[in-house]
Q: What sequence folds into this?
């Protein structure tokens, strides 16, 4: 299965990707996670990407492309769920060509919808465990009582001003990508409201038909 997940920041792409991994046995490719680990490890790529990330802008496509390319190649062009890639039309076109060259087109493109207000509500209270990278929400998915507050960090780009910037970037740069897949009849809209389980039921309803290998993009 070759899947791509879309949705604004805070739509729950990472959480749903994790469920997809467990249920369908695919590997999660998150360009955001790959970039954050490059920043953490202070690599040359990480140093170049950091200023864009902390200000909520997109990292230049050639940098992100290298990460996506390497991850997809390592997986032998199959059994992956892309989260956060592609984010621009240029990236989507490159990805289509790259996958077509290896006869491995995307099979399912899911788009998780939530409102801007919901995004701000979710992200401003999101916290990450510094060791495990587990994601919590202080109100809706609080950390276990034995996790001290000092172990929780807030992503720099989860500050209200940066969230708004990320939403603008999403509307301007990434929504046209959704339209690109819609034109190819490939995009499936998923309502992102409700519990993680409820959203995953919708995801499953959308993905199960693609288990039969109907290639589209
Ligand atoms: P995410 O964790 O997916 O929200 O990504 C965090 C940040 O990483 C984004 O706000 C961008 O700065 C950068 N990033 C992740 N994926 C991409 C991409 N496909 N193109 C450009 N920048 C990206």
A:
């Amino acid at each position: 299965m070759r899947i791509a997940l879309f949705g604004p920041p805070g739509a729950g792409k990472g959480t749903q990707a994790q469920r997809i991994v467990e249920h369908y046995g695919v590997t999660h490719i998150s360009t955001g996670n790959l970039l954050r680990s490059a920043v953490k490890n202070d690599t040359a790529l990480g140093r170049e990407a950091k200023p864009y990330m902390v200000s909520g802008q997109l990292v230049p496509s050639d940098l992100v492309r290298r990460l996506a390319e390497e991850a997809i190649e390592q997986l032998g062009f199959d059994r992956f769920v892309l989260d956060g890639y592609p984010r621009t039309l240029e990236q989507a076109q490159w990805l289509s060509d790259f996958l077509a060259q290896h006869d491995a087109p995307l099979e399912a493109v899911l788009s998780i919808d939530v409102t801007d207000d919901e995004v701000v509500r979710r992200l401003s209270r999101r916290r990450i465990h510094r060791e495990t990278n587990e994601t919590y929400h202080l109100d809706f998915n609080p950390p276990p009582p034995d996790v001290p507050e000092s172990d929780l960090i807030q992503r720099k780009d989860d500050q209200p001003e940066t969230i708004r910037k990320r939403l603008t970037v999403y509307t301007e740069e990434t929504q046209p990508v959704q339209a690109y897949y819609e034109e190819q009849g490939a995009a499936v809209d998923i309502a992102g409201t409700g519990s993680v389980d409820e959203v995953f039921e919708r995801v499953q309803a959308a993905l199960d038909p693609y288990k039969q290998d109907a290639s589209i993009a």
User: Anything to note?
Assistant: The first helix runs from residue 13 to 24.
